[in-house]
């Protein structure tokens, strides 16, 4: 009996100790509730819009002459896609004398579903705008002869951290009392030091007032003003109002985490170690003979470079060997899904994308492509593909988006490039390139490939990456393309027939409708033009 009481006593003591320990270790911080829902334009942004200066009505009667050469470059309130008419039809006419054609994208949907599709797209687009825009994107105009001095850009704070606000000052004519007010919305204002002769009111709050009868003392106090972010968001901005009698200014403080680097250990410095820097990725479907030719050609020049293969053949064959990774997918999963799978397995700094019917030659110098990415800000650089006829293509494309209204934006694609790259005379800056390119692995993974594009797709990747991918193209790094010329006495195999059926669907197929439907809904385009 005594042993039982002793056991119960020990258990009670242990329980009390455990509860005390838990209470002691329990976090005591009071957590605030933050509304991160998508909301209409905040009051501070409406206030910014209201403060945009109205045109001086006195200037309405002043005559002016429109300069068409410049005014024509300005964006319009809407956009249209217009093609070129006329021209002569003969073989290779489009190749030699390319004409611009225009396509409406809403035709990807049946008339009965189009209105509902427009409503859903408008709702999604509104949500996208609310998520992607911050006060940093708002227009702010500095008033003339404003005595307030403040930072115009470059002020940044980590979420829930504190900084000194640089550059605050008042340049005012003599008066009895100098007063300034500061107001924030996502954090609090305070002073890191108190200056003699300056009255501080509201320190530690969202609205703070500083006043003094000595301007020099007030400006000294402004050097110690701090901002503390109190409402957590990983990447946004606060708009701070700064005002004195009769004058008001606004500036933004970026609130965001620092970018976490993704660094790659490429070994000792010296000549580029392609095996440590580059992984070759490809997608295959049925064409194992051509895939083997690709592998054999790679091994002639780069025997230890890893080759990653994504395969969605119906009856996959084994593809093995040193430095080969073969991943099997569901049958017919598709082109972009295969790209995603292959690139998801890359662990090197760069990934080289190739088609499964390419052939490496002495002109396929990956070192040149690595060199330009190492020495420039480019994220991706394409090479050239040489056909059996000797024709070499780079497929350089410029891509631009013309803002539209409710119907959507206009997508314009043209053959060509923007600039020649200094120091690399054979290389240019462009927006889209051919299916032979070297890219920073993390940037390609960041953009990704839409797996809904299963049969017909290429430039859609560059459209999705517009604004985040810095793209180049070099015509002196060349890979050969296996011949597609069919000899009349050689019969087409069943696998070739199956491949052609999947690879080259008719223009009226579901694949084409899917592509146009995604451009219309996902990317908010109403039409596209290209040559």
UniProtKB/TrEMBL annotation:
Pfam families linked to this entry: Glycos_transf_2 (PF00535)
Domain Glycosyltransferase 2-like: 280-445
Signal peptide: 1-30
SUPFAM superfamilies on file: Nucleotide-diphospho-sugar transferases
Swiss-Prot/TrEMBL keywords: Disulfide bond, Glycosyltransferase, Golgi apparatus, Membrane, Signal, Signal-anchor, Transferase, Transmembrane, Transmembrane helix
Organism superkingdom: Eukaryota
Membrane topology: Single-pass type II membrane protein
Entry keyword annotation includes Chloroplast: no
Compartments (UniProt record): Golgi apparatus membrane
Residues forming coiled coils: none
GO molecular function: acetylgalactosaminyltransferase activity
GO biological process: ganglioside biosynthetic process
Listed InterPro entries: Glyco_trans_2-like, GM2_synthase, Nucleotide-diphossugar_trans
UniProt family annotation: Belongs to the glycosyltransferase 2 family.
Subunit structure: Homodimer; disulfide-linked.
UniProt name for this protein: Beta-1,4 N-acetylgalactosaminyltransferase
Species the sequence originates in: Esox lucius (Northern pike)
Organism phylogeny: Eukaryota, Metazoa, Chordata, Craniata, Vertebrata
């Amino acid at each position: 009996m005594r042993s039982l009481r002793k056991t119960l006593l020990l258990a009670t003591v242990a329980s009390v100790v455990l509860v005390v320990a838990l209470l002691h270790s329990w976090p005591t911080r009071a957590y605030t509730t933050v509304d991160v829902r998508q909301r209409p334009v905040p009051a501070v942004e409406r206030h910014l819009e209201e403060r945009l200066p109205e045109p001086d009505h006195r200037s309405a009667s002043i005559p002016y002459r429109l300069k068409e050469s410049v005014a024509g470059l300005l964006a319009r309130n809407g956009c249209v896609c217009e093609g070129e008419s006329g021209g002569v039809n003969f073989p290779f006419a489009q190749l030699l004398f390319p004409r611009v054609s225009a396509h409406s994208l809403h035709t990807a949907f049946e008339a009965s579903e189009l209105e509902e599709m427009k409503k859903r797209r408008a709702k999604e687009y509104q949500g996208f705008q609310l998520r992607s825009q911050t006060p940093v994107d708002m227009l702010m105009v500095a008033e003339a002869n404003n005595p307030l001095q403040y930072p115009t850009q470059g002020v940044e704070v980590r979420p829930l951290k504190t900084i000194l606000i640089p550059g605050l000052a008042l340049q005012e004519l003599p008066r009895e009392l100098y007063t300034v007010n500061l107001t924030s919305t996502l954090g609090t204002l305070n002073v890191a030091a108190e200056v003699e002769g300056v009255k501080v009111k509201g320190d530690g709050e969202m609205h703070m007032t500083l006043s003094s009868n000595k301007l020099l003392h007030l400006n000294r106090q402004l050097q110690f003003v701090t901002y503390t972010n109190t409402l957590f968001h990983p990447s946004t901005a606060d708009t701070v109002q700064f005002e004195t009698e009769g004058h008001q200014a606004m500036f933004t403080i970026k609130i965001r985490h620092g970018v976490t680097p993704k660094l790659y250990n490429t070994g000792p410095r010296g000549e580029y170690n392609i095996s440590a820097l580059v992984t070759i990725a490809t997608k295959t479907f049925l064409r194992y003979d051509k895939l083997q030719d690709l592998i054999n050609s790679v091994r002639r020049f780069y025997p230890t470079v890893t080759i990653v293969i994504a395969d969605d053949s119906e009856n996959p064959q084994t593809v093995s060997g040193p430095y080969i990774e073969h991943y099997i997918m569901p049958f017919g999963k598709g082109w972009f899904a295969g790209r995603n799978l292959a690139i998801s397995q890359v662990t090197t700094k760069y990934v080289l994308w190739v088609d499964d019917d390419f052939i490496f030659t002495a002109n396929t110098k990956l070192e040149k492509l690595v060199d330009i990415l190492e020495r420039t800000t480019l994220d991706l650089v394409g090479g050239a593909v040489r056909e059996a006829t000797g024709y070499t293509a780079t497929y350089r494309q410029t891509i631009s988006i013309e803002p539209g209204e409710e119907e959507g934006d206009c997508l314009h694609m043209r053959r060509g490039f923007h600039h020649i790259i200094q120091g690399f005379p054979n290389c240019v800056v462009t927006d889209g390139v051919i299916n032979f390119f070297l890219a920073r692995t993390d940037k390609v993974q960041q953009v990704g490939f839409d797996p809904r594009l299963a049969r017909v797709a290429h430039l859609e990747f560059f459209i999705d990456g517009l604004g985040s991918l810095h793209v180049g193209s070099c015509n002196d790094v060349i890979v050969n393309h296996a011949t597609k010329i069919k000899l009349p006495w050689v019969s087409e195999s069943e696998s070739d027939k199956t491949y052609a059926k999947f690879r080259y669907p008719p223009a009226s197929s579901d694949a084409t409708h899917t592509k146009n439907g995604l451009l219309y809904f996902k990317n908010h385009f109403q039409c596209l033009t290209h040559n």
